[in-house]
Design a protein that fits this description.
Blueprint (H helix, E strand, L loop, with lengths): L3 E4 L2 E4 L4 E7 L8 E7 L6 E6 L6 E3 L7 E6 L4 E6 L8 E8 L13 E2 L3 E6 L1
Parallel strand pairs: 2-11
Antiparallel strand pairs: 1-3, 3-8, 4-5, 4-9, 5-6, 7-8, 9-10, 9-11
């Protein structure tokens, strides 16, 4: 069982930056691929970024490429998402998720564990 707790959400102006963290309870955190997803009101949950446990390779959703950076610190059991050049359309609840897989990380179905989410609001 893995428990995930997100933090760092809040209100920021367009063009600003925000950093999210996700603390994981798993002793084998380093053996989980980790992802960030987001969900805006009335929309489906959307892939944001993922980091592979095998080689720490990363991939990003098209809407955030070049603006967001995912990283992890296995010694601290923590996942991060640095968000720069934020836009109003980035407003959503952001969720971190853990998967034992190292493939298809853009697909939310491969994730076994989810956090409760943290709200990010970008004002125009």
């Amino acid at each position: 069982q893995v428990q995930l707790v997100e933090s760092g959400g809040g209100l920021v102006q367009a063009g600003g930056s925000l950093g999210l963290s996700c603390a994981a309870s798993a002793r084998t955190f380093s053996r989980y691929s980790m992802g960030w997803f987001r969900q805006a009101p009335g929309k489906e949950r959307e892939f944001v970024a993922a980091i592979n446990w095998r080689d720490e390779s990363t991939n990003y959703g098209d809407s955030v490429k070049g603006r967001f950076t995912i990283s992890r610190d296995n010694a601290k059991n923590t996942l991060y998402l640095q968000m720069n050049s934020l836009k109003p359309e980035d407003t959503a609840v952001y969720y971190c998720a853990a998967s034992p897989a190292w493939y298809s990380l853009m697909d939310l179905k491969v994730y076994s564990y989810w956090g409760q989410g943290t709200q990010v609001t970008v004002s125009s």
